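Why run this: before we spend reagent on co-expression, it is cheaper to look at a predicted model of the complex and decide which construct boundaries make sense. The entries below are exactly what would go into the expression plan.
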Amino acid sequence: GQQVMQIPQYQHVQEGEDFTTYCNSSTTLSNIQWYKQRPGGHPVFLIQLVKSGEVKKQKRLTFQFGEAKKNSSLHITATQTTDVGTYFCAPTDSWGKLQFGAGTQVVVTP
Amino acid sequence: EAQVTQNPRYLITVTGKKLTVTCSQNMNHEYMSWYRQDPGLGLRQIYYSMNVEVTDKGDVPEGYKVSRKEKRNFPLILESPSPNQTSLYFCASTKGGSSYNEQFFGPGTRLTVL
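The model came back. C-alpha cells follow.
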C-alpha cells in the first residue's frame, strides 16, 4: 500500500527565516493536497497539486509537486508567528485512496 | 454558513459503554469520512462514505461502526469503547463521490475512554 513520509516531524523556526517541509511517497500519486492545523483547531485545506512539476504560490507559501509525482514540498519564506501549526500533506494514489502524512509541527520563535 | 458540525466536542466515558458521535454537513456533499488523530501518527481514516447507504472501511476500522441514512449525517458509533480508542476524532466532507477534492473538517471530538 501507499506509504507517506513527511519530514521533518518538528521544525523550530526563528521569525523571519525560511523553511521547507517535504512529503515523500513510495508510489506514484494522482494528486496531493496540503492542509494546515492550528493548535487546538481542525485541518484546513491549503492547496491541491495535480500536474507533474506543478508549482503554486500563496503569498509566502510555495508548493511544489515532483516531476515523478512521488513527492511534494511546502516552502515558507519569512516565517511569521501566524505560521505556527501542523502542516499535513495528503496524497491521493492512482486508485483514489487518500492518505495523510504524520505532519510537520512548526514552532516559531519571535 | 457552510460547515461541518460534530457533537459532542468533548466526551469522557468508561470502557464498554456504547457511544455515538454525530456529524452533520450543510454543503450537500456526497463524500464523508471519519478520522482519528493521534500524536505522531497524523490523521488516519476510520470509515468513509461515498453517498447515502454506501460506506466502506478506511485504514483503522476495528471497533467502529458508521451509517449513512441521510446525505447530511454520518454518525460514528463505538459499540464497546476501549482505552485505545482515546483520541481526537474528526469528521470531514467532500464535494463529489471521491476524496479527490478539498475536504472540509469538523471542529473535532476529543474522546477519553477510562
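The radius of gyration of chain B is 13 Å. Chain B touches chain A through 20 residues (CB under 8 Å). Bring this page to Monday's planning discussion.
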